[in-house]
């Protein structure tokens, strides 16, 4: 049995089992635009480094990737500024929810890691200080990774997030008061909300993240996006911080570096092998896709391939 056939058989079997089981969880009510999505959507796509692909369910339907975009903005900033970014954001697991303010005062405005909201807001500020038009440069970067010039922000989702993003406003203004935001908070937040609003399919999301499974190099054109050591470090941050205060549980049960978003998406990578994306909108109590986590746990158990 070849690689593609083996993955297709495994994914189909686990998909059907998870689909027929309970779909527990809730769609987040604090982003009104996300309430328009059917809670029963479920899609999976895998891209292997050998060029094999497979998808099932709603894998070609676009959804809001939300916090998954934080890995891409981090990759962009890290490539430009190198290790100097760690002067403004740490690399430790937070142990708190994604929008928590608790640690900022104790840490003098330095967010615990770049994948919680506070940390991603600081990364946005870093990019805004560097580029004349950070929004345009960032979407160009995502299009480059996807090899797809049609990818764009969702103005509707960005506006919906801004309308009710009180906690993110609080985070940004508080970090500004502690001296770790250089630009005007509203400008930083506009970029942050746009970044989170990007819509992708599971198919394109999995393909985008193959560069992190492939030592920082894209599959199309063999373009080096990140040096080896930067790639390794971003993967480590995804492993320890990619699922907020459920990151330890995800590492324990799944064993892959990855990132979730409140749009119901999860992307995970196995270095040297593949990137896989799952979408199911109902979230568990930690804000991660219920079916997504369940599928990926079954997938690594059955394939017996993980980083551990």
TrEMBL record:
Domain of life: Bacteria
InterPro entries assigned to the protein according to its UniProt record, in alphabetical order: Beta-lactam/transpept-like, Glutaminase
Annotated residues for binding of substrate: 67, 117, 161, 168, 192, 244, 262
Chemical reaction(s) catalysed: L-glutamine + H2O = L-glutamate + NH4(+)
NCBIfam families: Gln_ase, PRK00971.1-2
PANTHER family named in the record: GLUTAMINASE
Subunit details: Homotetramer.
Name of this chain's protein: Glutaminase
């Amino acid at each position: 049995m070849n690689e593609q056939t083996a993955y297709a058989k495994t994914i189909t079997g686990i998909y059907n089992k998870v689909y027929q089981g309970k779909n527990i969880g809730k769609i987040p009510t604090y982003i009104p635009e996300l309430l328009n999505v059917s809670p029963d959507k479920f899609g999976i796509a895998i891209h292997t480094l050998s060029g094999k692909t497979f998808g099932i369910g709603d894998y070609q339907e676009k959804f809001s990737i939300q916090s998954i975009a934080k890995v891409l903005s981090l990759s962009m900033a890290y490539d430009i500024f190198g290790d100097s970014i760690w002067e403004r954001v740490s690399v430790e697991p937070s142990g708190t929810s994604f929008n928590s303010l608790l640690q900022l005062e104790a840490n003098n405005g330095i967010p615990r890691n770049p994948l919680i909201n506070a940390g991603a807001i600081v990364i946005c500020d870093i990019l805004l200080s560097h580029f004349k038009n950070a929004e345009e440069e960032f979407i160009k970067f995502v299009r480059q990774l996807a090899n797809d010039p049609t990818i764009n922000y969702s103005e509707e989702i960005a506006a919906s997030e801004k309308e009710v993003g009180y906690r993110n406003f609080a985070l940004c203004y508080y970090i500004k008061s502690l001296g770790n935001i250089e630009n005007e908070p509203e400008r930083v937040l506009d970029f942050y909300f746009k970044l989170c609003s990007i819509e992708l399919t599971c198919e394109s999301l999995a393909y985008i993240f193959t560069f992190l499974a492939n030592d920082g190099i894209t599959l199309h054109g063999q373009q080096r996006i990140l040096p080896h050591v930067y790639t390794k470090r971003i993967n480590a941050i995804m492993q320890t911080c990619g699922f907020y205060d459920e990151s330890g549980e995800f590492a324990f049960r799944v064993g892959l570096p990855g990132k979730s978003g409140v749009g119901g998406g999860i992307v995970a990578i196995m270095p040297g092998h593949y990137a896989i994306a799952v979408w199911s909108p109902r979230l568990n109590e930690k804000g991660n896709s219920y079916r997504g986590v369940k599928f990926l746990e079954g997938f690594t158990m059955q394939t017996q391939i993980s980083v551990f």
